[in-house]
Design a protein that fits this description.
The complex is a heterodimer of chains A (221) and B (230). Chain A is of the alpha/beta class and 221 residues long. Chain A is built from four helices and 15 strands. The chains are: A alpha/beta (221), B alpha/beta (230).
């Protein structure tokens, strides 16, 4: 991922919290998606799942107060909420493959206009394994991507077809970037909102795949 | 009653060059650092290691990698250990990446005496390219084969003298699955209890799966909270 202005990044994360509704079971990918938790309305009760065997993940814990046996799948020390459960890795992925996740929010290297997701491998450069990414992308009921619009070389990460090895085919429902919110509907990308200070034309120019633009004025976030 | 307790030296000395060894743990929790360090000390070679992840540099299974004891690593990811990427690029090690839940299920499958299972996970990806496809009810699926081992090295919070095990918090992860899938299961135990002191309903791994137990007198700093300066 490229580097983002702190304010823009915070606005993107804050905006993406609208995906989360009370009562959902959710898995947040490592990196930016994990930070969504910090912006949630504490009155909204959700069940956070972590691949290493937790439902009911609570806030992160500083090392001085951490339980050495209680981490999330990204290796961060966490707490548990009342109602939490621990289980083994087979049960953890039965939750995912069995369709019990209402939502996953993941990072991405590329998203294609048909909803293909590439977020685990850059041949010759980055190949550290997929972890639970394929199961999450393929089996969560809703797959939301949170990423920078452009890579660090200034290239669009939203592409006509993925050039990198994919994680799962036609899985992405919505993309949040620092520039726009875009839905993937029947292999078509639809522009829903643009970031404050960014024009629709700038989003179109920064997007390598065709975008459908609604007739009405596009709201700002 | 058979005594399953053993010294760490004699337990690990059962492992031979060329063996396949499953290692419990997801990050630090559940990683049997004591057993791994003894395996590093004894120096068995040409091992195949099966583990969720490759720990972090200079910790746990990375010591076996750095020692040149491992030919092949089967993991879901090695994202926290840059040494694995370095060794891969120098062709010093073969690495098989397996989706995490499929890794877990392949191990469970072997332990349950089954011969494989069908899934659509990864079916559109490069990980599917060498896998057999089987059509069921008009649907093409990947055949995933069971994953077994000569040894499983595990860490348990509590055990009784019969070998019943209980894990704590996220230290459970792959351990109950690996306990079923290896010919010989060696467990390091933080608290070895008398028979009857472990309540039956709190047992995660029942005693028939466990061959040898090693009592951990003290925990090294590897077991403590990691401070990565994040």
């Amino acid at each position: 991922m490229g580097f983002l202005d702190v304010d823009v990044r915070e606005r993107m994360i804050r905006t993406a919290t609208r995906e989360i509704e009370a009562g959902m079971t959710i898995n947040l990918g490592i990196g930016l998606p994990t930070k969504l938790v910090n912006y949630l309305d504490p009155r909204i009760s959700v069940c956070l799942h972590s691949e290493n065997g937790i439902t009911g993940v609570g806030p992160g814990v500083e090392p001085d107060l951490a339980d050495r046996n209680l981490i999330d799948a990204g290796g961060a020390y966490v707490s548990t909420l009342p109602g939490a459960a621990f289980f083994d890795s087979a049960v953890s992925f039965a939750i995912i493959r069995g369709g019990r996740l209402d939502l996953t929010v993941l990072g991405a290297f590329e998203v294609a206009m048909n909803g293909d997701l590439a977020n685990w491998m850059v041949p010759g450069i980055f190949a550290v394994g997929v972890g639970g990414g394929m199961e999450l992308a393929q089996k969560a009921r809703r797959v939301v991507i949170m990423m920078t619009h452009l890579d660090r070389h200034g290239n669009s990460k939203i592409v006509p077809a993925c050039t990198l090895p994919i994680t799962a085919a036609a899985c992405v429902d919505r993309i949040y970037t620092d520039m726009a919110i875009i839905d993937v509907v029947d292999q078509v990308l639809i522009l829903r909102e643009v970031a404050k200070g960014i024009s629709v034309e700038e989003v179109i120019d920064a997007t390598a795949a065709p975008l459908q633009i609604p007739d009405n004025p596009v709201p700002k976030f | 009653m058979k005594d399953k307790t053993a010294s760490i030296e004699s337990a690990i000395s059962r492992i031979k060059d060329g063996d396949t060894v499953m290692v419990g743990g997801f990050g630090v929790p559940g990683t049997p650092f004591g057993l791994i360090d003894e395996l590093a000390r004894q120096g068995q070679k040409n091992l195949t290691l099966i583990k969720n992840d490759a720990n972090e540099e200079s910790m746990g299974v990375d010591r076996l990698l750095q020692n040149g004891q491992v030919n092949k690593l089967v993991v879901s990811h090695a994202g926290l250990n840059a040494n694995v990427s370095k060794m891969m690029s120098k062709n010093q090690i073969e690495v098989e990446f397996c989706p995490q839940g499929i890794l877990a299920e392949r191990i469970r499958c072997a332990g349950a005496g089954l011969y494989g299972f069908l899934t659509d996970i990864g079916i559109d990806t490069i990980l599917a390219k060498d896998k057999s496809r089987i059509e069921v009810n008009g649907r093409s699926l990947l055949l995933e084969e069971p994953l077994k081992a000569d040894f499983a090295l595990l860490h348990a919070q509590h055990a009784d003298s019969l070998g019943n095990l209980s894990y704590t918090a996220t230290a459970q992860n792959f351990s109950p699955l690996m306990a079923m899938a290896a010919d010989q299961v060696i467990v390091e135990v933080e608290h070895l209890l008398d028979l009857g002191d472990l309540k039956p309903e709190t047992i995660h791994t029942p005693s028939p799966f466990v061959d040898l137990m090693v009592s951990l007198p003290t925990l090294t700093s590897d077991y403590g909270v990691l401070r990565r300066g994040r």
